[in-house]
């Protein structure tokens, strides 16, 4: 037994990738249940999964008892499995998101190691491991973690088939593509299709596209993905189809929705910011890009990155999570570049590390300033000092680069950002979000009585109360309710309460939403 433990410890001392996977699991799972449900999409998704589970309905997703047509059902299924295992809570809602985060890192490692090199694989993992945005997204109860994993799996497995021509890779790619479609919709099928056709044509691999096996590929995708779409079309008399495909896909691409617009350049900035700190080397990477074009795996990663950034740059609605499926592929590009620098094949100047230092200083100053700007966040201003860790880390990386080269500088970045990501994601972020308006006002609501809202409210109330909230849409309905039940409590936003002049109401609570312009209020009759 002692010898076995010695062998394990020896393996851990000598195997860097094992340590990276352990750190990844630690950063993805630490305290994922500590942060309250408060972000709107998180709360809606978590509650929709619960409503489906309680109705024993595998087809129609609902939120607050009404059809939720924004998303397909894949993430709801995984959340239900976690609810049945761990109970209905925030940890369970986020559990499989973290699982797929770890699996995405492993998948990136596996294919980069198999088809490029060990060095590229290990540095690709490091890029994802230190990305705060990547870790943050995979700690949320949203469909993006499932989408990112299955798009990554589908494209990588297709590459495996193209190289080895074994049927297992083709079947795995088709199943992954179908599941990605059940995670997000047609965009999960259309963009990878464009990428794989472009890549195949660029390499003159026409046999890949016109093989009989492509009929099998399409057939497997249809067999896995189509039945649910047909069944929900039937179950909702076409309402889901109209809402999901036209409003939440075509309209979202054609015009900004919910105020999420922006210039063309904003999407590349999303990606560069999201993959900090290692993305500071992107400028140097682009300079050498044409020389990497000869490697077919690297070429595929280039095409994925370009297509996702270009597509969502053209989209009317722009959000930081939209281009995230390209993160694993961009990580491989950066890993490939870093490995070439470390093995002495190319040289790199130190300015990216100085850029990182400057960005971190600005981020520290901006966080300190912004937290002090709003009354709702002034008491959390001290948490901005967490951002001293990246500043020190970047400073150390500059020093190590000058003394011992890029490898040691990157070791400092991995160590420093691992510490920062743990402190920020597992301690600081949950501590701040404990003070959100939902948590601070929940004690005023009776779980055994009907709760009302006037127009808009935070859906986290549904998750914690586990009951429908009856929505009142005009002042007349509020007045009628107050007249018949003066003790009824109504949730709303402060700006909407101004419409209730003449209605006899009293203010029970007023809480500014964290990092938002809105203010949540609770009112009742006088």
From TrEMBL:
It is a multi-pass membrane protein. The chain crosses the membrane at residues 17-40, 91-112, 118-138, 145-162, 174-202, 214-230, 263-285, 297-316, 322-339, 351-371, 383-401, 413-432. Residues 51-233 form the ArnT-like N-terminal domain. It is found in: Cell membrane. It comes from the Bacteria. Keywords: Cell membrane, Glycosyltransferase, Membrane, Transferase, Transmembrane, Transmembrane helix. GO terms for molecular function: mannosyltransferase activity; pentosyltransferase activity. GO terms for biological process: lipopolysaccharide biosynthetic process; protein O-linked glycosylation; response to iron(III) ion. Its main location: membrane. GO terms for cellular component: plasma membrane. This is ArnT-like N-terminal domain-containing protein. It comes from Niastella vici. The lineage of its organism: Bacteria, Pseudomonadati, Bacteroidota, Chitinophagia, Chitinophagales.
């Amino acid at each position: 037994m002692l010898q076995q433990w010695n062998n394990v410890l020896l393996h851990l001392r000598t195997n860097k990738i094992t340590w990276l996977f352990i750190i990844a699991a630690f950063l993805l799972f630490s305290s994922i249940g500590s942060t309250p449900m408060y972000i709107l999409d998180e709360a809606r998704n978590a509650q929709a999964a619960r409503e489906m589970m309680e109705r024993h309905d595998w087809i129609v997703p609902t939120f607050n008892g009404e059809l939720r047509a924004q998303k397909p059902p894949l993430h709801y299924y995984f959340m239900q499995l976690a609810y049945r295992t761990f109970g209905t809570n925030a940890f369970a809602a986020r559990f499989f998101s973290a699982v797929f985060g770890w699996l995405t890192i492993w998948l990136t490692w596996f294919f980069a190691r198999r088809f490029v090199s060990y060095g590229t694989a290990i540095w690709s993992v490091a890029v994802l491991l230190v990305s705060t945005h990547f870790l943050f997204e995979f700690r949320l109860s949203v469909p993006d973690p499932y989408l990112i994993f299955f798009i990554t799996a589908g494209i990588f497995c297709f590459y495996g088939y193209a190289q080895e021509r074994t049927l297992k890779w083709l079947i795995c790619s088709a199943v992954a593509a179908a599941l990605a479609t059940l995670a997000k919709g047609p965009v999960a099928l259309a963009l990878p299709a464009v990428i794989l056709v472009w890549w195949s044509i660029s390499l003159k691999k026409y046999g890949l596209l016109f093989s009989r096996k492509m009929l099998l590929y399409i057939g497997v995708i249809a067999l896995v993905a189509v039945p649910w779409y047909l069944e929900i079309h039937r179950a909702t008399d076409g309402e889901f189809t109209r809402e999901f495909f036209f409003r939440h896909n075509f309209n979202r691409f054609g015009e900004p929705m919910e105020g999420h617009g922006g210039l063309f350049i904003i999407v590349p900035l999303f990606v560069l910011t999201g993959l900090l700190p290692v993305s500071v080397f992107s400028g140097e990477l682009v300079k050498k890009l044409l020389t990497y074009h000869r490697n077919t795996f690297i070429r595929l990663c280039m095409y994925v990155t370009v297509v996702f950034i270009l597509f969502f740059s053209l989209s009317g609605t722009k959000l930081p999570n939209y281009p995230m499926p390209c993160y694993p592929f961009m990580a491989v590009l950066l890993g490939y570049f870093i490995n070439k620098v470390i093995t002495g094949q190319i040289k790199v100047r130190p300015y990216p590390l100085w850029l990182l230092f400057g960005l971190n200083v600005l981020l520290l100053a901006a966080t300190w300033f912004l937290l002090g700007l709003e009354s709702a966040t002034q008491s959390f201003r001290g948490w901005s000092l967490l951002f001293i860790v990246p500043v020190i880390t970047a400073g150390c990386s500059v020093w190590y680069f000058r003394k011992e080269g890029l490898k040691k500088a990157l070791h400092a970045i991995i160590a420093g950002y691992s510490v920062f990501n743990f402190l920020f994601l597992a301690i600081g972020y949950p501590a701040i979000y404990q003070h959100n308006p939902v948590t601070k006002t929940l004690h005023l609501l009776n779980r055994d009585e009907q709760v009302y809202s006037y127009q808009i409210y935070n859906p986290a109330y549904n998750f914690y109360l586990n009951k429908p909230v009856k929505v009142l849409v005009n002042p007349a309905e509020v007045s009628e309710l107050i007249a018949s039940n003066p003790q009824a409590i109504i949730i709303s936003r402060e700006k909407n309460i101004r419409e209730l002049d003449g209605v006899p109401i009293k203010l029970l609570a007023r809480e500014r939403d964290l990092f938002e312009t809105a203010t949540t209020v609770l009112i009742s009759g006088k």
